[in-house]
TrEMBL record:
<dbReference type="Pfam" id="PF06267">
    <property type="entry name" value="DUF1028"/>
</dbReference>
<dbReference type="InterPro" id="IPR029055">
    <property type="entry name" value="Ntn_hydrolases_N"/>
</dbReference>
<dbReference type="InterPro" id="IPR010430">
    <property type="entry name" value="DUF1028"/>
</dbReference>
<protein>
    <recommendedName>
        <fullName>DUF1028 domain-containing protein</fullName>
    </recommendedName>
</protein>
C-alpha cells in the first residue's frame, strides 16, 4: 500500500573522516505511514510495507546495530515470519542492499535494487512508479542538494508516474528520515519529518522540510554567539 526508497551515501566529514549517511522516504494513500514503515539509524535504513509488520523494521535496525549484514538480518526476520508472502521489506547498510516482495503482495508490486539504494512498492498503478523513483534518485545521487531534498524529489517522481493506485482514498501521508555515522554530531531535526494526513502528502512534505530547515537555520544563527 506504499512505495518507498532507502539510500546509502558515503561522504567525507569536516575532519576528513569517511562517513556514511542513510536516508529513507515513503508515501501511501493511508494516514500515518511514518509511524509504521520507515526506520533509520547510524547503521542503516529499512522499510517494512505491504501487509505491514512493524517488528521487521524495528528488529531489522536492532540487528544492524548488532553487526549483522542487512541481507542476513532481514532474511532471518522474514524466514521467522509466518506472513512472509504478504510482506515487502527492503533496506541498506554500510556495505549491502536487500529487497524482498512476497508473492501475495497486491498488484502492481515489485522492487528495484541499485548499487547504493533500494526502491519497493505495492498496490501501484504500474512498474513505472518504482522505475521513475529510482531514476530520479540516480539522476542526482551524491548531488549537492541535501539528501532529504533529493529523497522528496524521488517520491515526487514516483507520484507523478501514478503512485498508489487507490484514487478513492484521499487522505494520504509521507515521511522521511536521514541519519549519519557522525555519532558526535546530532542530525538536524528537519531530517526526520512526517506528514501524517494530507491530500497532497509529497508536496506537503517538501513544504514542511523547507520550512523546518529555514527555522532550524534561524535558530542556529540567533544563538551562534551565545545570545
Amino acid at each position: 500500500m506504499t512505495f518507498s526508497i532507502c539510500v546509502r551515501e558515503r561522504y567525507t566529514d569536516d575532519d576528513g573522516a569517511d562517513r556514511i549517511r542513510y536516508g529513507v522516504a515513503v508515501t501511501t494513500r493511508l494516514p500515518g505511514v511514518g509511524t509504521l514503515c520507515p526506520f533509520a539509524s547510524a547503521d542503516g535504513a529499512v522499510v517494512t510495507q505491504s501487509l505491514v509488520n512493524v517488528e521487521l523494521g524495528r528488529k531489522g535496525i536492532e540487528y544492524l546495530a548488532d553487526g549483522l549484514a542487512v541481507d542476513d538480518a532481514l532474511e532471518a526476520l522474514l524466514n521467522a515470519d509466518e506472513g512472509k508472502p504478504q510482506r515487502q521489506l527492503h533496506g541498506v547498510d554500510a556495505d549491502g542492499t536487500f529487497a524482498f516482495s512476497g508473492d501475495e503482495c497486491n498488484d502492481w508490486y515489485g522492487h528495484v535494487v541499485g548499487e547504493n539504494y533500494t526502491v519497493a512498492g505495492n498496490l501501484l498503478t504500474g512498474e513505472a512508479v518504482i522505475d521513475d523513483t529510482a531514476a530520479a534518485y540516480e539522476s542526482d545521487a551524491h548531488g549537492d542538494a541535501p539528501l532529504a531534498e533529493r529523497l522528496i524529489d524521488a517520491l515526487a517522481a514516483g507520484h507523478a508516474a501514478g503512485g498508489d493506485k487507490r484514487e478513492d482514498l484521499a487522505v494520504q501521508s509521507a515521511a522521511l528520515q536521514v541519519t549519519n555515522t557522525e555519532h558526535e554530531t546530532d542530525d538536524p531535526y528537519y531530517n526526520d519529518l512526517r506528514v501524517d494526513a494530507s491530500e497532497t502528502p509529497v508536496a506537503d512534505l517538501r513544504e514542511t522540510y523547507e520550512t523546518a530547515k529555514r527555522g532550524y537555520e534561524a535558530v542556529m544563527a540567533k544563538y551562534a554567539d551565545g545570545e
